[in-house]
Amino acid sequence: MIMKDQKAALSPAHITGIVLLIAAAGAFFIQPFLSLALLLFYIVLCVGACFYPQTNFLGPVIHRGNSGGKYVAITFDDGPSETTTMKILELLDRYSVRATFFVSGFNASQYPALIDEIIRRGHSIGNHSMHHDPFVMLRSYPVLYREVYEAQTVLRKMGIDALAFRPPVGIINPKLPSILDRLGLFCVTFNRRGMDAGNLRVKNLSARILKKLKEDDIILLHDKTPRRNKDHHVLFEEIENLLMGIQERGFCVVPLSELIGREIMTIKSNI
After folding, report:
1. Both 171 and 246 in a single domain?
2. Which whole-number Å values give the CA distances from 102 to 68, 85, 93, in the listed order?
3. 20 and 70 share a domain?
């Protein structure tokens, strides 16, 4: 387990909390209701920041690139999947695209050959928690820590030291920054998605993304198995339409590490 020697800098949430706590203490002697209002305001700020991590209020979160050019990165969440990941890899090869796969520790342990194949084809792997519990950010500190740490352990046994963590469903909480700091990880979310609900709404996925595509977008896709059999073909078709559409609009897909200027992982041994 990687531990950082230095303490993380105070986040805007910490600074705001200190200021508002002092203000609330002073206001209590003037108007108790004002003191309560200040404390409630701080709670609302923190809750809202969980759903909008790009504000960086609770801690540093990378949600888009910083290249300044017509570059985008493609990422896949929730895999690897026995039925979809390999076909997606073949599609990416066809268009010479390198993506980042944020995998759950459980799925990685179930399909180690797919993890090997992802790496062999030049893609990157990120930590997406152990079990991808959509409510994990509501859990206690020990539970959240274990979810991140166990996934990290699974990947390290495969020779992969993930440096980037993506929270399930893109939601964070005040406990997450200190956990990532302890484990030597940084948080990466996204700013462009097709609202596919984890491959439940794959039809017109590419159009929804391409309609608002901008430079330095981090695109969110999923390589989990669609629930409806008829959506399997549609998913691959939509991903190919997306890859073609990106090129037609004059954008270039680059690895996530290149878009954000930070390594996503390191390889500890030959896979």
Report:
1. yes
2. 24, 12, 18
3. no
Per residue in 66-85, pLDDT tens? 999 999 999 999 999 999 99
Verify that 125 and 44 share a domain, yes or no. Answer: no
Residues 6+ apart with CB under 8 A from 157: none
pTM surpassing 0.70?
A: yes
The beta strands (E) that lie in the chain are given as 61-62, 71-77, 100-103, 124-127, 160-162, 164-165, 186-188, 192-193, 218-222, 252-253, 265-267
Let me know whether 78 and 106 are in one domain. Answer: yes
Say if 5 falls within a structural domain. Answer: no
CATH number, domain containing residue 186: 3.20.20.370
pLDDT in tens, 18-44: 887 787 788 777 877 788 887 888 788
Residues 44, 81 within the same domain: no
Is there a single domain that holds both residue 153 and residue 192? yes
- What φ, ψ does residue 114 adopt, rounded to 5°? -70, -35
Instruction: Work out the angle at residue 194's Cα, subtended by the Cα atoms of residues 191 and 198, and round it to the nearest 5 degrees.
Output: 105
Rounded Cα–Cα distance for residues 206 and 208 (Å): 5
Rounded CA gap, 50 and 132, in Å?
17
